[in-house]
Design a protein that fits this description.
The chain contains 13 helices and two strands, in the order H-H-H-H-H-H-H-H-E-E-H-H-H-H-H. By secondary structure, the chain is an all-alpha fold. It folds into two domains: 184 residues, no CATH class; 87 residues, no CATH class. Strands 1-2 form a two-stranded antiparallel ribbon. A hairpin with a 2-residue loop joins strand 1 and strand 2. Helix 2 crosses helix 3, helix 8 packs antiparallel against helix 9 and helix 10 packs parallel to helix 12. The longest helix has 27 residues. It is globular and about 70 Å long. This is Transmembrane protein 267. InterPro entries: TMEM267. Keywords: Membrane, Transmembrane, Transmembrane helix. It is found in: Membrane. One of its GO terms (cellular component) is membrane.
């Protein structure tokens, strides 16, 4: 008996893929043959397929489904059709549907090149772009086949293989998918991690612990050490003011335990407790 998560992923690919395709075919029958309506149905179908495929990826990877990532998958799958307007040099739907060849973004090579944009943010977003691009082209292949470049293209894809290809795309991405905690963003200014709130909470907790330690150890210090303590406090306040812009601007950006923006609690206790300095 297959694993429940695998069964759910297969169910999502089969019912989602074939269901969306049958519904889009029914919605473009002769009573609804307007060009704008057909374009809206086609774009919505691509977005739904991207969402279903990314859902299957998260199920196979055993990770929690994120509505934010599902929204990004749907938008990315729809945005791939923007290259039609670039190739037509017009925003007219009539000009887009009269193109003599498919735009470069719909080549199979784009499945490997477009995800490189996601590496600007993180490997996770690169895999999300891979899933949405591949699922978009798999749906287009139902009518015209996969296109490599020039005149190299395959015959139209049979409907029976369509869910299997979606499941293969999801399984490939699930194998390579990093967890949200283990991923290391290349540009942290544009990435949001689940560790951010924990880091900020630990920082606030360390501040409270240091305040309590200063109050408890204040009676142990001699009056001659007041000047040194005030100097240390002034240095700490100045360093905190210099780095406070980071905390205000970055919000929930990931800060590793060894980051220079996060001081160790031992170093703060050492300055606050004169007995530690004498050891």
């Amino acid at each position: 008996m297959p694993h429940p998560k695998v069964f759910k992923a297969v169910l999502v690919c089969v019912l989602g893929g074939l269901g969306v395709e049958l519904l889009s075919t029914w919605l473009t029958l002769p009573p609804w043959r307007r060009l704008s309506w057909r374009a809206a149905v086609d774009s919505s179908s691509h977005g739904a397929i991207g969402i279903f495929t990314w859902t299957a990826t998260l199920l196979l990877a055993g990770q929690e489904i994120s509505w934010k990532e599902l929204s990004m998958a749907g938008i990315a799958a729809i945005a791939l059709d923007l290259d039609h307007f670039l190739a037509a040099h017009s925003f007219s739907l009539f000009a887009v549907t009269r193109l003599s060849k498919r735009p470069s973004g719909h080549s199979v090579l784009a499945v490997f090149f477009l995800p490189l944009i996601g590496f600007v943010f993180s490997p996770r977003y690169a895999l999300l772009l891979f899933v949405t691009t591949a699922s978009h082209q798999a749906r287009d292949a139902l009518r015209r086949g996969f296109w490599l470049f020039g005149r190299l293209q395959t015959p139209p894809l049979p409907r029976g293989l369509y869910p299997l290809i979606l499941l293969t795309i999801a399984a490939t991405a699930a194998i390579l998918l990093p967890s949200r905690i283990q991923q290391q963003p290349i540009l942290p200014f544009f990435c949001i991690s689940s560790e951010n709130k924990q880091d900020s909470a630990v920082h606030k907790e360390d501040v409270e612990v240091n305040k309590t330690a200063n109050e408890d150890n204040s009676f142990l210090s001699s009056p001659f050490d007041d000047d040194d303590d005030h100097d240390d406090d002034a240095d700490d306040n100045q360093q905190h003011e210099e780095s406070s812009w980071w905390w205000r601007w970055s919000g929930s950006l990931p800060v590793s335990p060894r980051s220079p923006f996060r001081k160790s609690s031992f170093s703060r206790r050492r300055r606050s407790n004169p007995k530690i300095e004498q050891m």
